[in-house]
Design a protein that fits this description.
The two termini are 21 Å apart. An eleven-stranded mixed sheet has the order 1-2-3-4-11-5-10-9-8-7-6, sandwiched between helices. A hairpin with a 2-residue loop joins strand 7 and strand 8. With 219 residues, the chain is α+β, with helices and mostly antiparallel strands. The chain has two domains: 68 residues, no CATH class; 123 residues, Gcn5-related N-acetyltransferase (GNAT) (Aminopeptidase), CATH 3.40.630.
Amino acid sequence: MNSLTLNGIEIFVDEVGKYIQINDISDKDLSAIWESLREGFLGYELMLCFRDIDAPITALSEIGAEVLEDCIKLQVTPSDFSFCESSDVTLLRKADFTTFATLHDTTNPDCFWTSERILSNVDIWRIFTLRKDNDIIGYSTVMIDQRDSAIGEIFFIEADNHFHRKALLSAASQSAFENDKSTVIYMVDRANTNIYNVAIEVGFKEVGYYIGYQIKCIQ
């Protein structure tokens, strides 16, 4: 995504995917740039992200944005990290990307990070798979290259039981630390107690929150 400035506000634009992301914007500023967004980015999907600050409820209501994600922000450092190893969890092989992509897009049909977008930015990801009888039945992903070079971020954990979720999260977190990250963060949906409990066991602690609002198509 490219970083642009609109009326003094930084926005991130993916012109190919017709997607805009704006972080931590105030009520006043969101109202002020809304008409410019409509004029310049008609038909784009808009994502508004708020971490550890109050969202501009009035402006969001006025433009018709809906809650997409309501997450607890979790964080772990190497000193708190408790690794859980499993021989069934391995780094994704290039030859298996298509199989992973099908599983990922099926289990997360509405997420921004589709398999196509992951592939186009594959160098910033580490993907771990859970295998059984040569089939991929689960996976985890961690982004190891973002604006803050000290932070890795977990995005997806998909598995059908507690131990495998724990092993996948462990592998992804350990990979971030091995790539010189001092902290790993994970935004866990408030309703997803299975993942939350696994993260706590691995050593993650609550440090804040994240709320994402979405307009599927600017009109």
